[in-house]
Amino acid sequence: MASQLALFLFFLVVLLLTLLVSRRRRPSTLRSIAAFETLSGQVGRAAESGQMLHLSLGTGGVGGSDTVTSLAGLSVLAHLAEQRVATDTPLLVTVSDPTLLPLAQNVLRQAYVRRGRGNDFRWTQVQLVSPSPAAYALGAMDILSHEPVLANVLFGSFGPEVGLITHAGATANLVQIGGTDDPQALSILYAGTDRAVVGEELYATDAYLNPTTAKLASLAAEDVVRIILILIVVIGAILNLLGAL
Amino acid sequence: MAVLTSVILLLTLLGFFFKTDAVVGMQWILVKWAVMIAAFAIALGFINVLAVHIGKLTARKPGWFYSLVLILSAVVVLAIGLGESIFRPEEGLWGPLLAPLFSRIIAPLQAATAALLLFILTYAAYRMLRLSRRSGTVIFLVSAMVILIAQVPIPGLGMGLQDLRDVWLSWLAIPGLRALLIGVALGIAMTALRLLMGIDRPHA
Hints:
The structure holds two protein chains of two kinds.
Chain A: H1 2-24, H2 34-49, E1 52-58, H3 67-87, E2 91-95, H4 100-114, E3 126-128, H5 133-146, E4 149-157, H6 162-171, E5 175-179, H7 183-192, E6 195-197, H8 205-209, H9 213-241
Parallel strand pairs in A: 1-2, 1-4, 2-3, 4-5, 5-6
Chain B: H1 2-17, H2 21-58, H3 64-87, H4 98-131, H5 135-149, H6 158-196
Helix pairs in contact in B: 1-2, 2-3, 5-6
């Protein structure tokens, strides 16, 4: 328990130091991630064509081990919701876990309220398809096959069933963008989508789509911790080779 | 809402680090609240499913018949579940009517869907080979081919291919997977800290 507390405090200290440094320096620039650029382009295309964007928040929920991944999906929703209300881009959001439903509805509703259009919000713009991953994938396939969808955006926690959803999207010739944390589902997303967000890029979603100094600093803090970890691994490997460990 | 999230996150987190009665007691109260809220979320989800499909049915949208089947199924299963929980509470979800619905309808349907996935993934790999112009595509497909072909017992070539697969897995695939998982863990830790400090507020 002490080691976990030490690790937590180490992360916290690195983040606080990076936040302090970032306030005195110019804001850092982010490397380009193709998936996020494609995502922004699709909003404009959907607004022009009148076709909708489908956002799948995956099969995860809030309260379990996939909470943070689901919240990364909500960051994409927050970004698309603002665009949806500003440009009247049709947006359909689907979830699998009931705990994510009220949160997703609230994020979308807030975007309407901020623009003074609270009355235009419909609760059924966010749909719970099924709590079972397989049934959720089949329900999402049905939406992609029968609704006028332009792009299929998949951000959240997924399992191998994501292959069914990307297959329906590919059959309908949709632009597909996705990101998840599960390596198995990620390999399927990589094969099945036009642009996939790989590994920790998923957790940088909010910093990319709604950048602030603090969010950019937290990404820098993540890089600092990563460099320290790499150094530990390399030094450990060298010591192991030399027979010191 | 962001402040509330941070306070609740911190209280729950403290319960993991400091096992004093007061902190653990507070953690359990919060966990119980979360369970109750999740139960209400399930009820909301059920209403959402009905609202979406009643909307499709009344507007006669394409596939309205399936919406009708879904609504009837949902109402019938709910009635059976409620009936059994009232009259046979000791059996929980495994009463004489509800259990066969899971074991004879839902489970076989899920197994059939999983079987379908194999063909769909093969087709996805073919489509990727045909259409994708990404640099990683070649590495991705070569990896898949090495692993797949090494499973086939080819006389004379079998051991060589298996050696290649073992080298591929232990020198490239597994280190790559570990690097990916370390990155994901770092991302999760930093996102959790951002939520704790109110920097990220995707839910609010």
